[in-house]
Amino acid sequence: MAMNKPNELVELLKGHRVFIQTHNYPDPDAIASAFGLQEFLEFYGVNSTICYVGIIDRYNTRKMMDAFGINIYSYDEIHDMCEEDYIINVDSQKPNGNTTDLPGNEVACVDHHPIFEETDSYLYQDVRIVGACATIIAWYYYVTDTPMSSDVATALAYGIKVDTDDLIRGTTPLDMDMISFLFKFADWGKLNEMYKSTIEFQDLAAYASAIENIEVYDFVGFTYMPFECPNSLVGIISDFILSLDVVDVAVVYSVNQNGIKFSIRSERADVDSGKLIYDALYGIGSGGGHAAMAGGYVSAENIKYLGTAYHGKLKELFMQSIRKMV
Ligand SMILES: [Mn+2]
How far away, in angstroms, is 76 Cα from ligand 1 center? Predict the structure, then answer.
């Protein structure tokens, strides 16, 4: 069923009401991809609305809306989506804990995450394992020679840079080609502005807690924040822990009343973050992602399966899974 010619996507959508849905709690790559796709479709006469579930919880992600003039709506603000409406899943796929099933019909998907469950329900599916979803959207402009606004080019470049950790994490030749393609159209000064004031004052409590609670076993750094943190902040702390010289795999989580949120990072070829979290939490929680980065979750009801000394139990589960891999 897989077509991946952008003009086929345009044909599929013509005459329908179209929503572009990102994964929940969208990050810069998801928002840039949705925005780039929206302007791409608009050029060919297809109007669409970008929507998401959850909240946009980072200052820098929120800053994208103003910087690039992006209109994106929380599903709470959309009251009239119906079954006949078409949905394009962007930076996500349907059978996925991180994407809410909305009333519309999911007809298309553009994503760079590995396919976890084969589904033939998409009429258009473009899933490629590249560093960022924004790379695929940039390629749509590239292969069709579609005019691109400076804001789209800059937002896509930002999405690629963030998801690839500045072109080092999970980066493929296509990511590099698209960065160089975007360079001609993007406003690099505006892109630079996105890198100012990236740590929010309230984040310092999470850094302090992560530093206080860190333990390192072999090459694995474990730490946690015993309070609610935005998903994206858990990821940022995980990157921070991974940057330590003695850490090659970071396991970071935040504990709150709804459960435990995990973020995994790996810079080892033999430890796949997505497989690690899936295996370590098997039967207790859920998780998945890329080789270099992944996320996961254990609900409050399931914490009891970890026992009262759950910090120790989690280390045991993750170390067991890692020893199977290395
Ligand atoms: Mn992404």
Answer: 23
Q: Ligand 1 center to residue 294 CA distance, Å?
A: 11
Put simply, whether the predicted model's pTM sits higher than 0.90 gets the answer no
> Are the C-beta atoms of residues 35 and 51 closer than 8 Å to each other?
no
The beta strands (E) that lie in the chain are given as 18-22, 48-52, 72-74, 86-90, 105-111, 124-127, 215-217, 220-225, 249-256, 259-266, 286-289, 293-299
* Structural domains counted in the chain: 2
pLDDT in tens, 66-90: 999 999 999 999 999 999 999 999 9
- Kindly state whether residues 248 and 271 are assigned to the same domain: yes
Residue 309 CA to ligand 1 centre (angstroms): 34
Residues in the chain: 326
**Residues around the ion ligand 1 (C-beta < 5 A):** 29, 91, 133, 163
Indicate if 215 and 169 belong to the same structural domain: no
Structural domain span for residue 283: 201-325
> Rg of the chain's alpha carbons, rounded to an integer?
20
Backbone φ and ψ for 210, nearest 5 degrees, come out as -60, -40
The stretches in the chain having pLDDT less than 50 are 1-3
Calpha distance 269→195 (Å, rounded): 29
